[in-house]
Amino acid sequence: MKFGFFSSDYSDQGTTDDGSWKFCGLDKTQRMFAFGICFAAGALLSILSTLILLTGNVVAFAVIYSCGNVISLFSLTFIVGIPKQLKTMFAPVRFWATVIYIVLLALTLALSIWLKNFPLSIVLVIIQFGALIWYSASYIPYGREIIRRFFGSCVTSI
């Protein structure tokens, strides 16, 4: 298994974990609904945060956008379970993508709240979004390869 940011190994992929949510009394169907609701709520928060951005309130934008991303990321635990989610997040194939994403999430929140620097917050959110795309692509077979080829063809066509 390759260990690195650009690795395309998918050996850590697995099925749902039925045991992790048993203590909550959730069956498989309920967990799928919970996943959908949680993911949609996180995505909605992230999208609606752009309306707040139009008001110029960069702190509220960064906080709501980042919270939306965390909620969306958490939604996967309803499908695979908390232990498996943590295990796959820090698997060698996506270790650096996870670390970079979490660091950017924290930086976005911290610097937006303390510095209240509008351009810096926007740049951090854009980079955070890119890190989320790269992290998410690691769960899709050949997802990172597709991104590499797309941007490689864009660069060579310039």
Explained architecture:
70% of the residues lie in helices and 0% in strands. It has helices spanning 28-54, 58-75, 77-80, 82-89, 95-114, 118-137, 143-156.
Describe this structure in a few short sentences.
The protein has 158 residues and is mostly helical. Helices cover 70% and strands 0% of the residues.
Radius of gyration: 17 Å
Regions with little confidence, pLDDT below 50 for 5+ residues: 1-14
Give the fraction of residues assigned to helices: over 70%
The succession of helices and strands, N to C, reads: HHHHHHH
Q: What is the CA–CA distance across the termini? A: 35 Å
Strand tally: 0
Total number of helical segments? Answer: 7
User: Regarding quaternary structure, how should these chains be classified?
Assistant: single chain
The gross shape turns out to be globular
Main beta sheet: none
Determine the mean pLDDT.
Answer: 82
**Estimated share of beta-strand residues:** under 5%
What structural class results from the helix and strand content?
A: mainly alpha
Write the topology of this structure:
Elements: H1 28-54, H2 58-75, H3 77-80, H4 82-89, H5 95-114, H6 118-137, H7 143-156
Helix pairs in contact: 1-2, 2-5, 2-6, 5-6
Notable features of this structure?
single chain, 158 residues, mainly alpha, 7 helices, 70% helix, globular, disordered N terminus
